[in-house]
Design brief:
It is a single chain. The chain is α/β, with parallel strands linked by helices. It has 2 domains: 23-102, Copper amine oxidase-like, N-terminal domain (Copper Amine Oxidase, Chain A, domain 1); 112-325, Aminopeptidase. The chain has helices spanning 3-22, 25-29, 35-41, 96-107, 109-113, 142-159, 176-186, 241-259, 272-275, 292-298, 301-325; strands spanning 33-34, 53-57, 62-66, 71-74, 77-80, 93-94, 120-125, 163-166, 190-197, 207-211, 263-268, 281-288. The protein has a 6-stranded mixed β-sheet with strand order 8-7-9-12-10-11, with helices on both faces. A 4-stranded antiparallel β-sheet has the order 2-3-4-5. Helix 6 links the parallel strand 7 and strand 8 (163-166). Helix 4 packs across helix 8 (241-259) and helix 6 (142-159) crosses helix 11. Bound molecules: zinc ion. Zinc ion is lined by residues 126-127, 133-134, 142, 195.
């Protein structure tokens, strides 16, 4: 190594250090992937619009990103990423975890489902007994509707030859821990917690499907600037991040198409029952009891039938995807 080369490499090193110091802290922490390259790997060409939003189209799918936003639209469904896509010059940047476990899983489910099984569905009707859940007024309690929906879904799944268990099948008080314990004891391959929503803003209506955020990433209710440092905890539910995205996609799609309700998106929260699930897991919020229009629909058995049908279609699509994508271990009946 001659003296000139030594000098050149030293200058390059110094230039590199100075360049790093000049980059905002967020960009150093966020080691993202180029969005164009990620989308190209899933068969998409360059985006057709590239201003405030980037629209990627392939022969079978459309994905829309918004600049500096977690919200994307995958084939018409609203989905919240673990991390906002960052708008850069010429190319945007996406977190590797979203590239694989969110977008990759939704566009190409087979990879995400390879290790999953499909023998048993566990339904978890939210609340019960001393815990009524949200209240839609006039003794319209969430706990009765969650149980009603779960029973309707169970009947439909059984009609389709699917094994189903429920964490509770009557009006009983049950801790979150016991719900998880029961699900594990049954040997759940898919876990679905069923809820209804409420908000102080009585104008809000629509359905939401929740999955856990990736380790270290915020929930959709949290501010992103607090990301990285504090929440690096890996919970059991994170073993199935890719499959969770696939499951949520089919559930939300089923709910929307059968109820005609507003799409409030596939969101992220560390709810106890889904973060501690030892299988792909999701929590559906099937409508707002605090919205008088939605509440009056939910009070009708015919509408609850449609909610149940939507959930059932979502679960059946997920199960058939798992069945066709891998050879499951034999489970005793
Ligand atoms: Zn609830």
């Amino acid at each position: 190594m001659n003296k000139t080369f030594k000098m050149t490499s030293w200058v390059l090193w110094l230039a590199g250090v100075l360049a790093c110091l000049a980059v905002p802290a967020q960009a150093i922490v966020f080691r993202g992937l180029g969005l164009n390259e990620v989308m190209a790997s899933y068969g998409f060409g360059m985006p057709s619009e590239y201003g405030k939003s980037a629209v990627y189209r392939s022969r079978s799918a459309t994905v829309i990103f918004e600049a500096d936003s977690r919200r994307i639209v995958v084939n018409g469904l609203s989905v919240y990423l673990n991390r906002s896509v960052l708008k850069g010059a010429g190319n945007w940047v996406i977190s590797p975890v979203d590239a694989v476990d969110t977008i990759g899983a939704m566009l190409l489910p087979s990879r995400a489902l390879r290790k999953e099984s499909y023998a048993l569905v566990v339904l978890d009707p939210g609340h019960g007994g001393a815990d009524p859940g949200a209240n839609g007024g006039a003794s319209r309690e969430e706990k009765q509707y969650t149980l009603d929906i779960a029973k309707r879904v169970r009947a439909r799944l059984r009609d389709n030859g699917i094994r189903v268990m429920m964490t509770r099948d009557r009006d009983q008080t049950m801790s979150l821990d016991e719900r998880c314990w029961r699900s594990d004891k049954f040997g759940a391959d898919v876990f679905l917690s069923i809820h209804f929503n409420a908000s102080r803003d009585r104008l809000i209506s629509g359905v939401e499907t929740y999955i856990v955020p990736a380790p270290g990433y915020p929930t959709t209710a949290e501010a992103e600037r607090h990301v990285v440092a504090s929440r690096t905890r890996n919970c059991p539910g994170n073993k199935h991040d890719g499959a969770n995205s696939v499951l949520a996609q089919y559930l939300q799609k089923g709910l929307l198409s059968h109820t005609g309700s507003m799409d409030r998106g596939i969101r992220r929260a560390r709810f106890y029952v889904i973060r501690n699930a030892n299988c792909p897991a999701s929590l559906v919020e099937c409508g707002f009891l605090s919205n008088s229009r939605e509440m009056s629909k939910i009070a009708e058995a015919a509408y609850r039938d449609r909610v149940a049908e939507g959930i059932t279609r979502g679960l059946l699509t997920y199960l058939s995807r798992v069945r066709t994508q891998h050879l499951p271990p034999v489970k005793s009946m």
